[in-house]
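Z., the sequence and structure:
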Amino acid sequence: MVYDIDMLRSFYSNFPKRVDAARKHLGRPLTLAEKILYAHLYNESDIHAYRRGEDYVNFRPDRVAMQDATAQMALLQFMNAGKAKSAVPATVHCDHLIQANMGAKTDIATATQSNSEVYDFLKSVSDKYGIGFWKPGAGIIHQVVLENYAFPGGMMVGTDSHTPNAGGLGMIAIGVGGADAVDVMTGMEWELKMPKLIGVKLTGSLSRWASPKDVILKLAGILTVKGGTNAIIEYFGPGTASLSATGKATICNMGAEVGATTSLFPFDLNMATYLRATGRDSVAEWATAISDDLEADMDVKAQPDSFYDRVIVINLSELEPHINGPFTPDAATPISEFAAKVKENGWPRRMEVGLIGSCTNSSYQDLSRAASIARQAADDKIPVAAPLIINPGSEQIRYTAERDGLIGDFEKIGATIMANACGPCIGQWKRHTDDNTRKNSIVTSFNRNFAKRADGNPNTHAFVASPELTLVLTIAGDLCFNPLTDTLKTADGREVKLKEPEGTDFPPNGFDVKDKGYLAPTGGNIEVVINPESNRLQALKPFVAWDGKDLIDMPLLLKAEGKCTTDHISMAGPWLRFRGHLENISDNMLMGAVNAFTGKTNSVLNQLTGEYEAVSAVAKLYKSKGISSIVVAEENYGEGSSREHAAMEPRFLNVKAILAKSFARIHETNLKKQGMLALTFADKRDYDRVREEDKLSIIGLKDFAPGRPLTAILYHADGTEESFAVNHTYNDLQIKWFKAGSALNTNKQLSI
């Protein structure tokens, strides 16, 4: 089935004209990313040479996708926008609230019952506003989008940081906060800083144990978690055509781990084949007809250094399997060096659980390659040393994989098949272990491996690898095992070397499914009811506007040390149940951040009492006394998920500003959207000046303007003062957001 076919027909009939107009206006060849960006300007006539990394641009995306955890807050905001229907096609996907515990059937039944209030709310809001609804168990948002909605040349936003997964079908797909999604759904301009362009040239082709996952694992090591910030990663070169569409999606998906705005591949035969295999023949036909416009121009490919801000070359033929981690997804190590690194660092060598799935690696191709190894282990009677957990990407994949025997291959070696949902990848995992605090190692085919993310244990050393390598290490139970060189012992004492994985991009007999899990909106006069006594859902009240004054004498709430991701700011796992209730979820604010003065988490000095208390408790007390506070942090503050709760919680608890050495892109935007100040040290060494008992003032807000620094004043407990410049990246519109109290407040004012 082709969803939104009229929109797609119109898109492909107009896309070449828009690309030609941009090329003529700029007077030069275009990269693929530029073609898509310029074809999606909010006003077609507003074409000029936007400066990458500097100019803000207004875009008109084609569609919106929301997962159930972030959709709650997004739709609560949309309900306040005064619109009768979403202005663009939009969908909600119930994939985050299902806890992996006993297995798919039991876990979905448990989730359906325990989350019924939230699911009913999301379904009713979707019905009312013309939004498609995917039921619990239908699949992980990004896999479902790839199978049903992604299309070459399109632009979409999604309330999840791994929305770039759709780049596997040549789409610019960008993870955003809910307020950004509301802009798009209300038909407003969607603003983005014109991204820089990183060109990654792929040559050769993968062989042996190497997989598409290893491309992005290697690239993460090159770029680090900050290297792609405010940039689009565009792949090109002869190696791209050798990768399947789902393999490309894996690579684009994990581009979020280097901070990239998004990633994408040029249209090719593999994409067309995937579109046809998933029932979208007409889309494949339309894209093929304009294929020259769905790749970089010839001159760009011939002289990439002249058109990209940075060019990286990866030879797929020489690529080794990689394992990244622990604790950060950019700690990349080729497998030939990994055993030595395990021993050198004293990481727990015994591999205790293997987890295959997530939005990154849960395609039919992924499962089929891993299943080939499972079959060999069963046939050769090789004992499996560790538990194995499988999360298929969608019901269509699960049903087809079961029909074709792949699920049975995993079950023969003791695997537990969990729901078609995110599960352990986002902390929704009830891990069965003898001790949930001791040091241990797990290997996953996921994308992130921050401390405590999967199971809540800060001592779990999580490593990221391809599905096939994850399965190999699960069988061996030993992080130091290398399938390229080592052997395993069978039950009868033989030494066996595992064969290289084999799989197919598509099921030989095509995809099949009894019930995809999709519910189309019914429309009509539907009343959305939120129980005022609910602890899961809470109607939103607009944030108050700026009072026109500088921020004076704000007590330091927290000076965070080291990595402070959105997981540290607003944890997932058990807290997901409060994603629709701002007051309740605010109790987790910054509870994972490390206090620079004590080295402890969720323990900060209350300047009113002199006691150390939970971060949210101190903020609440300050708020009750009418006192604003401030948070100070280090590099890449807000790295990770798109969850806007990490911005809304401080806003709700009267934190007025975040002062950091640098910000992750999505989080900085989320802070701006909620009317907060996102400030950076003009001199990063000024971070060291901030003391535990300080009060801070931010001066110059009456003259708040783009490019004009503000001033921070530190009032130390000993009576001394220090001041220094702080920078910001606010443009005129974003300053209006700040003054109005939030972007949503501004939009409501404009619509009156």
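The first strand starts at residue 56 and ends at 59. The first helix runs from residue 5 to 26.

Let me know what you think.
H.
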